[in-house]
Amino acid sequence: MNTRYEIIVGNRSRLGTIIAAALYLCVCGCAVGPKYQRPAVAPPAAYKEPLPSGWKEAQPQDGKLRGKWWEVFHDPDLNALEDQVSVTNQNVLAAEAQYRAAKYAVRIARTALFPTVSTAPTITDSRSPSNFSAGGQVSSTSGVRNIYNLPFSSSYELDVWGSIRRSLAQTTANAQVTAADLENARLLYHAALAQDYFQLHGLDGDEQLLTNTVDSYREYLDLTRNRYRGGVASQGDVAQAETQLETTRAQLVDIGVQRAQLEHAIAILIGKPPAEFSIPPAPIRSAPPQIPVGMPSTLLERRPDIAAAERQVAAANEQIGITRAALYPTFAFAASTGLERSNFLNWLTWPSRFWSIGPQLGQVLFDTGRRHIQIDQAQAAYDATAANYRQSVLNAFQQVEDNLSALRILEQEAKIQDAAVKASRQSVAIATAQYKGGVVSYLQVITSQTIALQDERAALDILTRRMVASVGLIEALGGGWDTSQLPDRGSMLAMGN
After folding, report:
1. What pLDDT sits at residue 93?
2. Tens digits of per-residue pLDDT, 430-460?
3. What is the rounded average pLDDT of the residues 39-56?
4. 315 and 177 in contact (C-beta within 8 Å)?
5. C-alpha distance across the termini of the chain, in Å
């Protein structure tokens, strides 16, 4: 009894030492590898392009774009269409599913911080030959043996060098990349819908103008025919009037091609087949609204594509730590226990128990420099993602500047074009009066009408381009999103998400 007691005490003492050592390594373990710092980017103090007239630079909380940014256009029909994008657009739904998959990957990575337990119960029958030799003696009997085994095994790797923690951090950063990609997809398709919407209604303005022009040209044709019958006009004047009328009618019909394509594109953006969707004609009536631009420094926090690029840099930084941790030995514990018996009735009894426990040490002794090369590879990948991040920032500033310049220049052009429209209308009135008085030929009337039509179509085109550029500016500014909306690890690990 005393001897057995001493052995048990000795085993328990060894087990306590093992557990104490494990706890020490867990507490004192450190994460090898570089500490992450966002790549340095120096934004300009101000945008190069001045704001359009009447606009002012937005202060931090002064009219900041939020949520449903398309509501700044005060168009109920546009609002109704935009609300469907996040619900039925298949590309947005695909991005949302990718984000959910990335969240599950975070939960999977977290399980590596805990032990794993497995079991593989077996019931086997075996027969030994009658002349089987065991221990120098030949058995003269043979028979079938039944073995009932109910084992449980557990393994746990100590995260001494932070490899597991860095893998979890990397997976979290990758999930944040997909979250930012989801927001970027929403912004992209919301903006595409708004731009298609304004281009379509810009064509409606063209269609209305050409319809009115066709009616006017038909009246001029009747006038010319009457003058021809009266011997005042020539057959050439009638032919010119007919040519002008039919040419304009052809332009009117041609508008239907692009309008149909835009209508089909909007249907796809809201997840509907084109056959089930239509938009009634409605020319653009209002000028683009003022967009709160803000300071250039805030752009880094407002663009989801920049956030995605920055999170990719963070993930690449964690990979460097993971590869460096491979240089050091791994520490793990393995334990097994269970019940084993050759008799089913006595299988699930205390004397049938068995167990084992012990630490494991793993270390690669020679790999021809493979791990060091992998570290260099991870560093190169980090440098590439950091360069991509800085390029994303530069692209963002370019897009803002492009749309600011477009809005400013188009506003100036609109004022000049409006003056040209007014002058061309007056020119048509004068030419018509002179033609009726027999002072000029009908060619002068046609020339004035052609110029007037071109000017009015140009004015409508400028208005459409201004609306499209205003949407482009909102998209370039991030659509009211900011990095505070990126999910953290805790929200991704919550079971309710």
Report:
1. 96
2. 999 999 888 888 999 999 999 999 999 999 9
3. 82
4. yes
5. 57
Name the burial class of residue 452, with classes exposed (0-12), middle (13-18) and buried (19+) by CB atoms within 10 angstroms of its CB: buried
Rounded to whole angstroms, the Cα distance separating 118 from 199 reads 62
Q: How far is CA 272 from CA 78, 91, 201, 346, in A?
A: 16, 13, 20, 67
Residues in CB range of 234: below 8 A, 6 or more apart: 228
Q: How many residues does the chain have?
A: 497
Asked if residues 50 and 235 have their Cβ atoms less than 8 Å apart, the reply is: no
pLDDT in tens, 164-180: 999 999 999 999 999 99
Measured CA to CA, the distance from residue 88 to residue 83 in angstroms comes to: 9
Find, among 497, 441, 494, 483, the residue nearest to 176 by Cα: 483
Q: How far apart are CA 315 and CA 170, in angstroms?
A: 5
Would you call 424 helix, strand, or coil by DSSP?
A: helix
β-sheet bridge partners, residue 3: none
Residue 62's φ and ψ, nearest 5 degrees, are -95, 95
| Domains of the chain in sequence order | 32-114+162-328+369-493 (1.20.1600.10)
pLDDT of residue 355: 86
